[in-house]
Specification:
With 252 residues, the protein is α/β, with parallel strands linked by helices. The strands form three sheets. Strands 5-2-9-4-10 form a five-stranded mixed β-sheet. The chain has seven helices and twelve strands.
Length: 252
């Protein structure tokens, strides 16, 4: 009898436990700082050491020379570093685009904020390209109609910022209205479709450049800007871009 009562007691406890609410009602967070005091795993370090050394050797190999130090803050509406980057996109990517489509890139538009570092006077390495352009942005070519071109010009005039451009000449009057706009040295034909090279971030509305979105086919060149900068550096001996008249403000 006692055994039977004990067994019933155990079953009752078991059933009661099963009915208890075990749902999660509180999460406690804890901050674990990553510092130099954390011990490294010697075995892992030994394994990755040759790979790290190989990567660093490639990144630190000299591929060109900068005649001066270039910063995105050096000019009002165009800068030497921005001009170099936009021109490099055209020079490296236009042959690729022509080969694939039998068409030419008409102009290039990048963004001022995408330039993330100066280029210091002296040796240029692949690491320099990673510092200037740490993002994985790739070049796309978007067909733009007349209204999109007008929206682009209005955007550039209103922002008054040195967004890198190539093969576009934009002159603003004293009140920052558009005085002159040329593509490839010619007056803009607003009935024409222009092929504008930019990056995928901007094409998708980054930096509020919503006018770049195409109603037609967009061409993805699958060419990271960082990689084309490295290819450009390897083509030249000395980098010496300048501030010019491609985007200016004429003060009366």
């Amino acid at each position: 009898m006692r055994n039977r009562l004990f067994l019933m007691f155990v079953m009752a406890v078991f059933i009661t436990a099963c009915k208890q609410d075990h749902s999660l009602n509180k999460i406690v967070g804890k901050r674990n700082a990553v510092t130099d005091s954390l011990k490294t795993n010697a075995e892992i370090e030994a394994y990755i050491k040759p790979y790290r050394e190989s990567v660093n050797k490639d990144l630190d190999s000299v591929i060109a020379f900068a005649a001066n130090t270039y910063s995105k803050n050096d000019g009002e509406l165009n800068t030497a570093i921005g001009n170099f980057m936009a021109d490099a996109v055209f020079e490296i990517c236009n042959p690729v685009f022509e080969k694939r489509t039998n068409k030419s890139i008409d102009m290039v538009l990048l963004n001022h904020g995408g330039i993330r570092s100066i280029i210091s006077k002296g040796n240029i390495t692949s690491r320099t390209a990673y510092e200037v352009m740490p993002f994985d942005n790739s070049v796309v070519v978007t067909p733009m109609d007349g209204q999109q071109i007008k929206d682009m010009l209005s955007f550039l005039a209103s922002k008054k910022r040195a967004h890198p451009i190539s093969r576009l000449k934009l002159t603003l009057s004293n009140d920052y209205s558009i005085k002159e706009a040329l593509i490839n040295g010619s007056e803009i034909d607003y009935e024409k479709i222009y092929h504008v090279a930019t990056n995928d971030y901007l094409y998708n509305g980054g930096s509020r450049m919503h006018f770049l979105k195409s109603k037609d086919t967009v061409y993805d060149l699958d060419y990271k800007i960082r990689n084309l900068l490295i290819d450009y550096f390897k083509k030249i001996d000395t980098l010496q871009p300048s501030i010019d008249d491609r985007f200016t403000h004429q003060k009366d």
